[in-house]
Amino acid sequence: MSDLILFAGGGTGGHLFPGIAIAEELQRRDPTTRVLFVGSERGIERQIMAGHRFPHVALPLSPLRHFWRRPGQFFWRNWRAVVRARRIILEDRPRAVVGLGGLTSAPLVWAAHRAGVPVLLLEQNAIPGRATRWLAPCARLICVAFPECLEHLPTDVPVLPCGNPVRSEICQLAHDSTGPATQTILVLGGSQGAESLNAAVVEMVCGHPESLADWTVVHQTGPRHVESVRTAYAQAGQRHVVTEFLPDVAEQYRRADIVISRAGATTLSELACAGKPMVLVPYPHAADNHQQANAEVFVRHGAAAIVLQAESSTSTAANLWSALEPWLTDAALRHTIGAAARGLARPDAADRIVRLLLETLRIAA
Q1: What ranges in the chain are assigned the alpha helix state H?
Q2: DSSP 193
Q3: pLDDT of res. 53
């Protein structure tokens, strides 16, 4: 029977897409390799996995925020998740488990470690998440996207900076020449959307109709704000495309002249491949403020501007406009910043991580 590789984790596109990139590379090398994603029941995860050919199993997990509100349910559901993860390991007998980060990855990674199955962990952010720190002793190898991550992880487990794996259609953008300007601003709040970012961007756009009259705003809002954002742009007379989720994100990256985005690590890695100038608004409540740390890496390399989220959307909108306005009329500046972003791209990350995974399995055997 062909080898089975399990991918543990999910919940957001930021965790899932690197795993999908590695799974694609594994099957490109050996089409007989079997892949199974084991994650959560969240709707966005099901939506993302439905767009790919890989099988997916959901564990009955409760997020950490439910610990204080519903402790009984939290322990019961997560205990069931641990039991089911152990059964998957014992019945499916995988060759390896790749942990994608987040609490969702913990039951399967722990079960694999207890069963002696080799574990490789991925860490996408400049500051490692709690799950990576907790699960590090279970891993044979940890692959990180940012060298800045090394100082936060234990020294008794091999940790290698490999870049953040991106899907094949995104990798291709790193080799494409820059196309003609389309005067498009792409707004990304992440796969789940971002209410405060949506509000600030809408206020900024609607406050400058003359300056943006020749521009189109393509705005990924998440599922809750599609209609309100669409209505606001229509009333302001702003050309727009508003959607809850972008299935054709590679094409949207290709067409965009400027990107306004949160600073999730996977999104940054994809935008680096696309070579796009970006205004980053880090999510201020991210664990250990890791999104700001991610954004600061890009700012230090001249690849982005950073706008910190203010107390009010009006203040954030004003700060966004201050960062964005000089870029609207200066194509050469946009090109320079985009080129700096492309200099941070690691389109070979999936290939490097698969090589390391296969070498780890060879040593383990």
Answers
A1: 13-29, 43-50, 66-69, 71-92, 106-114, 130-135, 168-171, 195-206, 226-236, 249-255, 265-274, 290-300, 313-328, 331-342, 349-364
A2: -
A3: 85
DSSP 14-67: HHHHHHHHHHHHHHHH-TT-EEEEEE---HHHHHHHHTSSS-EEE-----TTHH
Per DSSP, 177 falls in state: P
Strands across the sheet with 240-243, in order? 240-243, 216-220, 184-188, 258-261, 278-280, 304-306
Residue 75: predicted pLDDT: 81
Half-sphere exposure of 346 (CA within 13 A, CB side): 22
- Of 267, 287, 181, whose CA–CA distance to 220 is shortest? 267
Q: What is the DSSP letter of 138?
A: G
Tokens of residue 78, six digits: 């997560």
Residues near 261 by beta carbon (within 8 Å), at least 6 away in sequence? 186, 187, 188, 189, 267, 268, 271, 278, 279, 280, 281
CA dist 249 to 50, 51, 326, Å? Answer: 16, 12, 26
According to CATH, the superfamily of the domain at 4-165+347-364 is: Glycogen Phosphorylase B; (3.40.50.2000)
- The two domains 4-165+347-364 and 171-342 share their CATH topology (first three levels equal): yes
Task: State the virtual CA torsion across 175, 324, 194, 44 in degrees, nearest 10.
Answer: -20
Q: Where are the domains of the chain?
A: 4-165+347-364, 171-342
- Strand-pairing partners, residue 243, are 220
- What is the second-level CATH architecture of the domain 171-342? 3-Layer(aba) Sandwich (3.40)
Residue 10 and residue 16 in contact, taking contact as beta carbons nearer than 8 Å: yes
Sign of CA dihedral 187, 192, 197, 203: positive
Q: What does the pLDDT look like over 312-345, one tens digit per residue?
A: 999 999 999 999 999 999 999 999 999 999 999 9
Strand order in the sheet with 159-161: 56-58, 34-39, 4-8, 96-99, 119-123, 141-144, 159-161
**160-199 tens-digit pLDDT:** 999 999 988 999 999 887 666 789 999 997 655 588 999 9
- Contact indicator for 279, 259 with CB cutoff of 8 Å: yes
User: What is the C-alpha separation between 60 and 357, in angstroms, rounded?
Assistant: 28
